[in-house]
Structure of DUF2946 family protein:
Amino acid sequence: MDDIVKQALARWPNVPHCSGWLRLDARGHWRLRDEADQLQGAPGTPVRHEALNAFISRNYERGADGQWYFQNGPQRVYVELEYTPWVVRLAKAQDGALELTDHTGNAFEPAAVYIDEQGSVLFAASAPSSNPAHSRVALLHDHDLDAFSQHATLDDDGESGTFHWRADADLPLQAIARADVPARFGFVQSPEQKEKAEKAQG
């Protein structure tokens, strides 16, 4: 988190949060959603400004309740997730080894690979704590599915197999239901819908 953001939080600790205004799409793009987008359920406008993209990425965090947010100065802006909290690209390094990079520009080291019923590929990193629900999970950008298939071997059932990640580190492919992913990895896909549901109950 940027120092200027930490200073703003210390100075104005009780600024109300907002939800519905920012979305992470399935290709790792930040999208701004105005009131019309929210009313229509539209994905919003991609953020093209390089510095703003970088600022959002540096201040992207997970709350204890599983909601992901962008800390915009003193205000917490909850992020709508098209699928997972992270999106990764697959490429070859100069030495020929495969590498994954997340949508914020950081390396992503997978510990497990999943395929859902729609053919989407997800990578899970090692859990940062003893709670497996806190493991980082990332969707593979759809442009990299062909590259992935060149390094994967599917079994006859089409749902299991092996991903050849490193020379000494093959990862088994595991089937997962798309609807189970948020609960399995401990994140809230739509803070906006969660907030509406809580207001309706209250």
Notes: The radius of gyration is 18 Å. The chain is about 20% helix and 35% strand. The first helix runs from residue 3 to 11.
